[in-house]
Amino acid sequence: MKSARAVAHTNIALVKYWGKRESSPADLNLPAVGSLSLTLDRLRSETTVAPADQDSFHLNQEPASGEVAAKVLRHLDRVWQAAGHAGARPTCEVRSHNYLPTAAGLASSASGFAALTLAAAAAFEYDPGRPALSALARRGSGSAARSLWGGFVRLDRGVLPDGSDCRAYPLQPQSFWDVRLLIVHTEKGPKAIGSTAGMQRSRDTSPYYGPWVDTSEADLAAAEAALAARDLPVLGDILEHSCFKMHACMMASRPPIVYWRGATLDVIHAVWRLRAEGLRGYVTSDAGPHVKVLCAEDQAEELAVRLRAVPGVHAVDVVGPGPDPTVEV
Ligand code: DP6
C-alpha cells in the first residue's frame, strides 16, 4: 500500500435523507429516500491513510479510541474488501482533521467518511471511479456519499438489494450558481438522539414515516428542476417543505425526536419576517438545533447581520458552494 491524503468538503441537504431501507448485511446503509445537497466551501475534512506497524486513528491531532476509532477502522476493512486484494488488510495510521466551525455541532461524518474513503482507496491502489466510491462512502454515513462532488449533488435511493445503484452523482458544478448558505448557530441542549438510531425510531414508530417516504421522489424532481432554472423562491419553497416534513416525521416518533430549541424557532420566524421585507432567505435544519438559510449572494451579508441580532444566536457563518474533493498519493 501507499500513503494517500484526501480533502472532502461537507454538504447540507436541501431535500433531506431520513430513513433506511432494510438491507442484508445491515451495514450496506441504504437510504429509504433520495436526497439533494449543496457541498460547502471551506468546511472540510483532510484525511491521511498511511502504512504503519499497528492501526491507529487521530482526530484533530488527538488519538481517538472506542466506537469512533472502530467505525473508521471498519470502514478501512470495507475499502480493502471492495478493492478485492488477497490477504489481510495492512495495518494503517489514519489522521483526520476537521475544519468545521468551532463547537458548531455540525456533523463531520459527511466530509469525514468521504475523505476517508478517497484516501483509503488511493492508499490501497483501488480506483473504481467516483460513483462506486460514493456507494462505498455511503456505507460509512449516508450523507458522505454526497461529498464526493462539489456543487449540487443528488443521492439516488436505488432499488438493487446490494446497494450498487445507491450512490450520488453531480447535478451542477460549484460554479453553476453563486448562492450562499448561512449557518446560524443557536444554543445547544442535550442531543436528542443520533441520526442512525433516530431514523430507526422514526421508521418503527412514526405514523408520518410512510407518507414521508412516499412523497420524497416528487420533492427531488421539483428541486432538481428549480435548481436547473436557478429559481431561488421555488427551490426555497421545496427545501423548507422537505425540512418541515422531516422534522414532523421525527416529532411524531415515539418517544418524540425533537432537535429544535427555542432559539431554533426564533431564527425560523426571523427569517420569515425578513423575507416579508424583501430579504429572501429559506430555512432548513438537520439533526440539531442550528438553522441553515439559503439565499442569494448579494443578500447574504445583510441577512447575516440581521440574524446575529436574534437572541439565542451565537454566530452566523456565511458559506458558498464548495469544490470537488482532491486526492494526493
Ligand atoms: C438530517 O448521513 O448522518 O442530516 O447514514 O446514519 O450516518 P447515517 O446518517 P447521516 O444522516 C443525515 C441526516 C440529515 C439529513 C441529510 O443530511 O440528508
Automatic annotation (TrEMBL):
Keywords: ATP-binding, Lipid biosynthesis, Lipid metabolism, Lyase, Nucleotide-binding. It is an enzyme of class 4 (lyase). Signal peptide: none annotated. One of its GO terms (biological process) is isopentenyl diphosphate biosynthetic process, mevalonate pathway. Gene3D superfamilies: 3.30.230.10, GHMP kinase, C-terminal domain (3.30.70.890). It comes from the Bacteria. Residues 8-167 form the Diphosphomevalonate decarboxylase-like N-terminal domain. Residues 182-309 form the Mvd1 C-terminal domain. GO terms for molecular function: ATP binding; diphosphomevalonate decarboxylase activity. It holds the Pfam family MVD-like_N. GO terms for cellular component: cytosol. Its EC number is 4.1.1.33. PANTHER family: DIPHOSPHOMEVALONATE DECARBOXYLASE. NCBIfam families: mevDPdecarb. Belongs to the diphosphomevalonate decarboxylase family. This is diphosphomevalonate decarboxylase. It comes from Nannocystis pusilla. The lineage of its organism: Bacteria, Pseudomonadati, Myxococcota, Polyangia, Nannocystales. The gene is mvaD.
